[in-house]
Write the structure tokens for this entry.
Amino acid sequence: MAIHFQHLVVIGVGLIGGSLAMALRDRGIVERIVGVGRGLKNLERAKERGIIDSFSRDLKEGSQGADLVVVATPVCTIPAVIKQIAPILRAGTIIIDVGSVKQIILEQVEPSLPAGLHFVGGHPLAGAEKSGAEAASAQLFQGGKCVLTPSPNTDPQALEKVTSIWRESGMEVILMDAQRHDRIMGAISHLSHIVATCLVQTMKGLPDPAEELLSYASGGFNDTTRVASSRPEIWRDIYLWNREAVLEAISQFELSLRRLKGFIEEEDEAGLLKELEGAKKLRNQLKRF
Amino acid sequence: MAIHFQHLVVIGVGLIGGSLAMALRDRGIVERIVGVGRGLKNLERAKERGIIDSFSRDLKEGSQGADLVVVATPVCTIPAVIKQIAPILRAGTIIIDVGSVKQIILEQVEPSLPAGLHFVGGHPLAGAEKSGAEAASAQLFQGGKCVLTPSPNTDPQALEKVTSIWRESGMEVILMDAQRHDRIMGAISHLSHIVATCLVQTMKGLPDPAEELLSYASGGFNDTTRVASSRPEIWRDIYLWNREAVLEAISQFELSLRRLKGFIEEEDEAGLLKELEGAKKLRNQLKRF
């Protein structure tokens, strides 16, 4: 499907928002790009890099005239941002988001959306080690997956256009129920962060001082805890906004841990080996890493 | 301390054993190096690379004439290897190991060691993503730490020489009680592997198929579970040989997890944020990674 937009507004010109703007400009899909954000320095850098043509630090002013709005702000601000800009957007405008939790956003956005505006929630699974417009790249999404979570109310034409947007940016698009998305992410993404956080925190409760323990860290601890260095506010919101799925994943993890602990307690060599072999086998299916 | 050995025998010419041989040869500390192992291909490769001068697949034959023996076999084989070679070693020979668990090795080796042989247990904290003689490098130990775990029975001169061996190979040497070493490693190293293993295994117990969950994995899951791809037999032995410390670390981790879970259950934003900030702060002290 050939798509074209006259006026893209990117709210939150960070790694994801900035990269999407760059990818869409590269593909000749958008004419004019306006960035909206709080941090002046980041917006100035985005303009310098040619990611955006102009910018505004005022949400309503900056969003005027858009036919496509990308909301790439921290997950728990997304519904409020959309509520604020909705009254000034014209009919036919498409709004997309990139939040890593989807059901609660859908619940909060859909009922209050004025007729004629089209919201299509999505979650591009793309790396996030760096942040800000400085780190944005037109290639960020190449070869990745983007989950879109339409509801029964989603406009089919808007969904088709948004699917094209993400495909053109380089991603495989997968359509999924928002609740299912959240359950999957709770398991494969959010639980990793929880476990990494707890692994770091565990060092504080042991007989030896945490700083000393850390001085003996090597590859294993470093890899396993890397995500615990991510932004706390973001993850607090993700946990609370995906509470049910996250709690279910934690409970299942507790069972796994109790089983492994049991094998060690009982010195069950065969059980332990089988468990470790099973984990290795499944882990090795991640070919790319 | 200037040290020199005429005849180094390396039992297990893998990443660690091979790298130590290379480092010691580089520093002009050893004359002749004999490799002992099971795998013919690995020994041949080690000889091709100049890591060893000759090799034997027979433990006793290969160890004859040594004045320094490096035992770099899997941790649970170390005491048996030392017991087997001890009768044919001449008085004054120094035996070192590189096992990642120390107390149980000490307990099993010391009582049966013939008078005149000197054992100094050690654990070089060095990366292990690759394995085999192919991956060995004289630079592997540069800038790393090596923990030596002498006992009250350890010969002071032998300890001094072994300290020099590891220093010459590029490591900072730290002397520590074997039990303390095992407690620290249980926390900072072995627990990471346990948690990574359980995180992978958790994917099998959730409503969605594990293979499907893994197809949505990105950086977080990949980093956090990387060590779960290590060799199952090695880790089974480490867990069982460091059982007490590992169980204590798991129990403390369970407390951390229960605390974090509680914050999520109770939707305690402040508690959650404080926990995440605490983990991030401590994790960020790992400057090198």
Observations:
- Chain A touches chain B through 94 residues (CB under 8 Å).
